[in-house]
Amino acid sequence: MSTQPERPIVSVRGISKRFGQTTAVDAVDLEIRENEFFALLGPSGCGKTTLLRMIAGLEAPSSGELVIDGQDMVRTPPNARPVNMVFQSYAVFPHMTVEQNVGYGLRVTGTPADETRRRVAEALEQVRLDHLATRKPDQLSGGQRQRVALARALVKRPRVMLLDEPLSALDAKLREQMQLELTSLQRAVGITFIMVTHDQDEALSMADRIAVMNNGRVAQLASPVDLYEHPADTFVAGFIGRINLLPSRVVRRSLDGLVILVEGLGELTLAGDNADAEGTQFAIRPEKVVIDPPVDEAGWVRAGATVVDTAYYGDTSQIFVTLSDGGRPLSVAIGNARRGREGRPQTGQSLTIGWRLADALLLAEG
To answer: What is the distance between the alpha carbons of residues 118 and 95, in angstroms, rounded to a whole number?
Structure first.
C-alpha cells in the first residue's frame, strides 16, 4: 500500500445529485489524499458511479462543492480538469494500433509530434505494452486492451485517475492478475487512483481506503482492515464479506463491558471497544468460528450445533449449522487441508462450535 501524505487532492463537500425526485448522491463529504488508491464500493444503485462521474465532470452536482488539486471544479468542463477516466468498456478504437490509441488524446490537443511519440512510448512502457505498439485491439487479450485504456489515460499525465469498474469485463483469473498490476502501476506512477467497484474482494485487496456507499450516502470510510474487523453497522458488515448475525439486546452495563442477551446463546459480556450500545445484532465472522473449541480456556463462547448444509469452494468450505436452541443458521468457514470430502462435517452431524468472545461484535442495523 502507498504512503499517504495528509494533503487532500480531491475534496468533496456536501455533494448531492438529484434526477427528478430521485436522490442518487446525498450530501457526501470525502477527502481523498494525494498518491492514494481510493475505492468507492457498494451495490448497484448506491450512487458510487454518479459520484465518480461528478468528479470527472460528466455529471453536474445539484449542490455542494468539488475541489481538485486546490481548484474549485464544479463549473469546470471535463477536458479542463486534471483527471482522466478509464471506462468499464475500455472504449479503445478498433481501427487504430495500440500506439495510435494511446496517442490520440495528445494529437487532438495539438501536442508536438516528437513529444507525443516520447510520451506514448513512456506510457506503453509503464503498462508493459511497448512490444505490442503496432498491434490492433482485436489482436490483444482483454487484459491487454485494458492496459491500452490505462496508457491512454496516463499519457495525459492527470493528477487523478478515475477507474469505473475497470476489471468487471475480465474473467476471474485475469481479474486477480490485473488487481496486482493496477496496484503496482499506481505505486510506480505515483498519482491518485479513484476506483468504483461493487466487488468487495477487489476493493479490499487494492485500496488504501474504501468508502462503502449505500442509498447515496457513505456508510463508512476506513482502511480495508478496519472495515472488515470493525464495520459500522450490519449493512457494511454484510457487504464486506460474510458475517453471522444473531438478534440480541443490551441487558446492562458492567465493569467488563456490555452484558447482552443473544438468541440461542444466553447472556454474554462484550468489551466496550467491540460493542455499540445501540446495537441489536450479535455478529461473528465465519472464519473466526471453530469446530471443537478449547474447553479449558476462558473468553470462549461454546455451543452445540447441527450441520444443515455444506458448500465446497475448493480451498475452503462453508459449513451451515443451527444451534441446539434453533434460530437462524450460522456459517462456519473451514480450510480444506486435504483433497476430497474426508474430514468435512456432514449434514445431520452434531458438533460443538465456538469462538473467542473478543472476536464478536454488537452492531446497529444498517
So the answer is: 22
